[in-house]
Structure prediction request, 246 residues.
Amino acid sequence: MKAVIIDDEEHGILSLKTLLDNFMSEITVASTASNALDGIKIINQSNPDIVFLDVEMTQITGFDLLDLIENKNLQVIFVTAHDKYALKAIKYCAIDFLLKPVNILELKTAIYKAKRQLGVQHNLAIYNANAKENDVAKKRMILPGADGFIVKELKEIIHLESNDNYTWVYTTDKQKTLVCRTLKEFEELLEHSGFIRIHQSHLINENHVQRYIKGTGGYVHMSDGSVLEVSRRKKDEFLEKFMENK
Prediction:
């Protein structure tokens, strides 16, 4: 696995690189950066599997870096001296959160989690290609969770709701699943499968729309009883796509 280390303290970079070189032979450190802006460049250039990322750095923070990069599927392991950021790291879908000085056993555990998740992502990428099948009956998607994954046919998905870097997926079995994937990623995956973005926070399955109420943007009533706002900016696009497919 290819990794990069981004830390504004040179001794932090050297210490972590030494641990990886000595104890984790499956990890190759492709590059390092001593600030977040250079970190963005090396991530784009080397396309790593894992990013070891400090939080508090000059210029911008590690969280800012994650907001700015295009590749959101990186396995991120935060390495910092400040435990106050642990909760925020979870919201950014971090694989793990390690405190300096890094404990080798905790580092090995984090690497194991990253390896496992990389394997899952590879399989998900193949499986989720089914979401682009022309045959509706073959359209399925995997929803990864903390303890495994759930397989759903697209016709079972009613709507999706943004929750920062996560997405709530609402299904016909009256369940909702929190997935560590942005709503934009779902929008791109499902754009030709009857799903319409009606709001910054909502992506809906047009086959589960039961009613539309006019307004500034309006509201849609879904088959599960939920009432979702249509933004003013998305109103015309929603109505055009919905009518076009009917």
